[in-house]
């Protein structure tokens, strides 16, 4: 069955192929092994999005000697300009001893043709992919049958289509997951775009359902992303309260991550404890919080976290004492993936992956509450930075095979943060982690750039966050550009001898206009106080706009028209006075 969804000038052809993988074979509506046996109409009301009406496609699945009805639902909404596609697999699980890869899908509904539909069809696209909110492998091009839009299902994110003849300033369609973000994917098979459960999942439980959204706006790419984000936040009842009140977003801070002068490096003749205290006392800036990066805790197998507590060689007097010596300044604390030999597995329920040397809390006990609560009470934790999200997901067999584990892990972390009263920053997040944050209001921010050290060493334009910021802001997260230097040269830094910051003013400006954290990482003696103070008030309040800077629509069109080669940098933002 074919359904053509007309969305103003843009047309997305939904082929509505429905397919399921079970018992080591495909059942598909294409070859009548999953025959369509009925169609129905229905209507109802969603508590967040309001009234809907839908067409139901009923298929008959016979496998392992059992017949079940599988239902595909195509739903239209009264309150939002979108169509959502829902698949209910029926009252029997889908199992298979041989799983597909994590870049494939094992259920398909819906699917879309990637092709030009007529001679004057001039559609462009861009899509998010890979870590840092999809920043690392984002790409753009022409919507045509030869385009490779999805390069990795695991790393894929929302797809934005637009009319090139309107310079991306008119009709826009956004395709994205609408539920089960950690377990479902967009996938490309030849010139077909397919949505469904990640192929590597070992089984799909009975009565499982998933959904994706096709959202339309006539207002150009930037406004379309905001409207889509508003609809997604509304669907999940996501509050903006925690983002708006996050001290690490609203005030000047200091970071010690990869790019900071003190990243795995101390002041001459000082240990880390004395260095950090010296930073808090001797930099003449209204710093309202300090971040401690991966150098402060114990590591185990595969360089994962063995124990998230201060190393005695780093903080000989203990972190609570250091916190008091820094006048109880709020602390941001980094964490990475859990090692397979983590000490916490002796007390709490962890799933271990010996092959990859990693582990993960199953999240059915008090682990997260105990971990975050102790840090908040004893040494001033206000923001928990969960880094290495991509590796914890991609290089960890259980998150690729257990259909609920990824969501359970992140939501349990978020619920504990809510109970304790701390916020969360995502770092190295795939688009699926970002979308999962729709259900976790304590995730207030996310890194949208590669590490600043890469810019210092290789002059990579790490400051170019104008596209990834669009996604972060849409779903309610403040985009974080990463640490920066306020001086061009800082001899003695733990990087290449040629490392330097060519345009410090640009770094400070981009960070300020990002609406996310603003965090210098200079050596004490190289901090340019006058330059940094242009970003904030005397007490450190960041003078930020209402919206983050993002690439203007016409340059997005140029990016796609020129097959993914960026033609320049021109950004816009908005402030209300």
From TrEMBL:
Its main location: membrane. Residues 1-16 form the signal peptide. It is found in: Membrane. It comes from the Eukaryota. SUPFAM superfamilies: (Trans)glycosidases (SSF51445). Keywords: Membrane, Signal, Transmembrane, Transmembrane helix. It is a multi-pass membrane protein. One of its GO terms (molecular function) is RNA endonuclease activity. Belongs to the RNase K family. This is Uncharacterized protein.
